[in-house]
Amino acid sequence: MSVAKRFTTFLINIRLSDVQIEAGKSRRESVVKAMNGNYWNSSSSTANSKFVGSWGKLTRVRPPRDVDVLFTLPKSAYDRFQGRTGNKQSQLLQEIKGVLAKSFPSTDLKGDGPVVKVPFTSYDVELVPAFELTGGGYWVCMTDGGGYYKKADYDAEHTTIKDSHEKSKEKTRELIRMMKRWQAYCTVPLKSFWIELLAVEFLSTWEHREKSREYYDFMVRDFLKFMEGKANGNVYAPGTYETMFLGNAWLSKATTARQRAEKACNNESDDPATAGDEWQKIFGTDIPKYP
Asked: pLDDT tens digits, residue range 201-245?
C-alpha cells in the first residue's frame, strides 16, 4: 500500500488549511462589500458574487494563490459606459479601481482586463467584474485592441470539472492539484486552466480511472505522457468553445517529469526511497521520500 500512502500524504500536504480557506473567504467578502455598496446599494459581502477559478472549481493548492472572484455588475453600469467614447472597458475597470481605493487606500490596485487585482498581505483577490448574459455566461472586460467584451462561462467550467471528478471516482481534482504543484515547483510555462482541461480529457479514457490511489503513480506517469502528445495542440473553453493553443514551451519539462515518473514507478515496489527521490524531483518535498 506504499503508493496510496505516499500520494495520500502528498495530497494532504498541498491542501489549503482551514485558516487559509477562511482568509480567502474574508478577503472576498471585504472586496465584494465595497462593490455592492457602490453598484447595488447593498451592504452584503457575498451577494452578486461567487468564487471562480481554482476556488470555484475546488482545484486550489497550497501555498495559496490568488482568490478569483466574479462580481456581477448591474445593467445600468453597462448602459452608462456604452454612452462613452474610447476604451469603455478600460474606463470601467478604472472606475472600479477608484471604488475599491476608498476601502483599501493603502493598497496598490491594478486593473488589467479582465481583472482588478486587490493585493493583500498573504494573497491577492483577482476581481472579475462582469455582466450576466441572458442566455448564460458573462461578458468580461478586455482592454486590449481598443477594448471589447469577451464571453466567459464560469458555470460550464465548474460543471466540466465536477462531472469529470464524479465519473473518475474523485480523481480529477486530485490530479489537477498534483500537477499544479509540479507546475509551480518546476516553473512549467503552462496555464492552470489548460492543466484542468487536459486532466478532464485524459481521465475520460484512462483505463485505471475507477481504481484506488494505489494507481496514482501510474496516473501521474500516464498523464505526463498524454500531455507530451498534446504539444502544439488545442484545448477548448467549456461553454464558449474558445480555442486555446497549447504551444510547446512546456514540453521539455513534461518529458523530463515523465521520465522521472517512469523511474519512480519502476522502483516503487523494490526501492521506494529511490522512487521517492524521483517524485520529489517532480513535486518537491510535499511528496514524501518514504511512504
From this structure: 999 999 999 999 999 999 999 999 999 999 999 999 999 999 999
User: What is the amino acid identity at position 242?
Assistant: E
What is the Cα–Cα distance from 68 to 262, expressed in whole angstroms?
A: 35
**What's the CATH class of domain 18-152?**
alpha beta
pTM, whole model, 2 decimals?
Answer: 0.94
Other C-beta atoms closer than 10 Å to the C-beta of 243 total 9
The DSSP-derived string for 191-248 is: -HHHHHHHHHHHHTT-TTTTS-GGGHHHHHHHHHHHHHTTTT-EEE-TTT--EEE--S
Q: Residue type for 167, please?
A: K
Domain layout of the chain by residue ranges: 18-152, 156-283
Per-residue pLDDT for 1 more than 70? no
What distance in Å separates the CA atoms of residue 22 and residue 197, rounded to the nearest whole number? 27
Element (H or E) spanning 15, and its range? none
Does the pLDDT at position 107 exceed 80? no
Alpha helices in 16-61 (DSSP H): 18-39, 53-57
d(CA 157, CA 174) in angstroms, rounded, equals 17
